[in-house]
Amino acid sequence: MKSWIDAITRTILMVRGRRETAPQPVAPVDTRPIHLFFAPEAGVGPHFASHCVIARTLQERGHRVLFLRCNRIYRHCVVMEMLAQDVEKSQGERDEACTLCQANHDQMTTAYGLPSLDMSELVDEAMIAKVGALVAAMPADAGLFEVEGIRFGALCSSDLALATKTLDQLNATGAARRRLEAYVFGALLSFFAVKALLEREAVARLIFFNEYGMLAGGALAAMKAGIPITRMTQANHKNVDRSRVVLLHRPLGTMSSHEALDHWADWRDIPLSQRLVETVGDNIVARMSGQGFTVYSPKLSGQASDLFASLGLSRQRKTLVAYTSSLDELNANRNLMSAFGVDLFQKQQPFADQLEWLTALVDHVERSADLQLIIRIHPREAPNQREGTRSEHLPKLQAALSGRYQHTRVIWPEEQISSYDLAEIADVALPAWSNISIELAQVGVPVVVAFQRYVPFPVPDVLDWAATPEAYFQLFREVLAREPSFERMRQVYRWAHRYSLAIAVDLHDLVPSHDYAGLPPWHMPAAGEAIENILIEGRSVVEINREALLADPTADVEAETAALIAQIERTRDVMMQGRDSATSELSQALLRLDRLAQAGRAQLHSASAGAAWSARP
User: Fold this and answer.
1) Residue 602 class from Cβ within 10 Å (0-12 exposed, 13-18 middle, 19+ buried)?
2) Is residue 535 within 8 Å of residue 208, measured between CB atoms?
3) Number of Cβ atoms within 10 Å of the Cβ of 212
4) Which candidate, 212, 203, 469, places its Cα nearest to that of 339?
5) What does 173-226 look like in DSSP terms, one character per residue?
6) pTM of the complete model
7) Arithmetic mean of pLDDT, 435-444
8) DSSP letters of 411-470?
9) I need a surface site. Which of 69, 166, 424, 496 has the fewest CB within 10 A?
10) CA of 299: how far to CAs of 228, 295, 353, 576, in Å?
């Protein structure tokens, strides 16, 4: 540890020496409070571009902004993770990351005329030594490690899960423990650097990107001092939508998503405009097409009917498709919440854990006279195009599902079978808890989730859940007998909008496309006033978007119904993949989508034949 502490100390002294020998212009004193953009990870270009767009908006509207930048002081950082560098790296590798970071920062802040401060102005040798000593003393159970009342080991567990898929992040050993120590070092360095800045400057708000430990450490310093914080990210839409910047005053995404469910009643009866319905539909089409690094499943093949033969399935039995979720990510979220003093996951569940659920499900199906089960193990559990690591959870799944089954088929992570092809033949989908639940509902598949409020969903508006094993098995029997509901599809689209889009400001008039990764040529975006209201006045982006939706004259039930029919038919066309509906055998999903579209058209016919349709239900 001493070697890299010495290297960081030498860098700080070198930077300070350059600064002290260069002529320093005398600038007028600006006493306005600072809106601090804590962005030491400028090497992640698309993220930093969003920082710059939001900062320039505030600056143009008369507010003081400041970027806090890194100048080669982190042992390991988000940019180095992006470049797949190990914690123990050569000086050349470190220089590669730092050069990229400095170049991005200088280019973008210069282009937009944004001021910045080097963290080396706030970090000295004593601070580096202090942080190093704290990390060296972190106990074997990192969950017990606290500094100034903050659980920094728990804070950084999510970083470790993302990088290594370790299940018990807080008791990691070997290389995983060394990586956790590097994350904790970065988080502590950020904490003390921001704390030092707050002692000398009046800061009105701190803005940071995502939940990485080194960034959340700075946010926690602000929170501890009573300074408001805003977490920025880009909308989880069409892989990642860089034209929609999320601005939430909660430090964790989990907090915001649970808040969305808690206040669902404020949104559930508000119709969407045609444009918003189409935007929600764009996402499921993109995901079925396998677009983007956030999509782990192979793309929809259009050959779902072949699965009956290739998997040895019976056409006389009802087909259940279970989708597992990533346990390491669940554990990391629990740890991350504990660092902020909250625990939002629902305690009452029908099963103790995912393995108990799968075992009970297999047993139920194997004893049944009319069911068959496909278990799709999450592709993230194995090395994939995004990560080269196998999860620690995978061997446990392999051991639990090693039997010889008559009516159960297991699709392992590396198998190139699309989760969306499986959805097409499913009579009922049975996810553990992940976001694929809402995607399945959008393609018309009835969904019964096993674990509620890990990822929150409105029950029963959007999908179903039961509190006991007996009720769970009875519930999917009931769901099998239900007719598809157009009104439920309406709620599915409204929830998808609330969950992923209503949390963001729309910058499409400035950012040219959803996948634009650079810094756009500047002009004030139409959302400038909203951004100012959110970051200066502390208003909620969700409430601002709700008010805009209520005021939109194009958002009425009849227009929404017509738009939903169009999206249902669009989804059906995508799933058909060029097949001739006159000659092809239609899958369960396609038949359900047909019935949903018919139900929607019947509603439109009734509305046109009867009394005026209210714009607000």
Assistant:
1) exposed
2) no
3) 23
4) 212
5) -HHHHHHHHHHHHHHHHHHHHHHHHHHHS-EEEEEEES--HHHHHHHHHHHHTT
6) 0.93
7) 96
8) E-TTS---HHHHHHH-SEEEESSSTHHHHHHHTT--BB-SSTTSS---TTTT-B--SSHH
9) 69
10) 42, 9, 29, 13
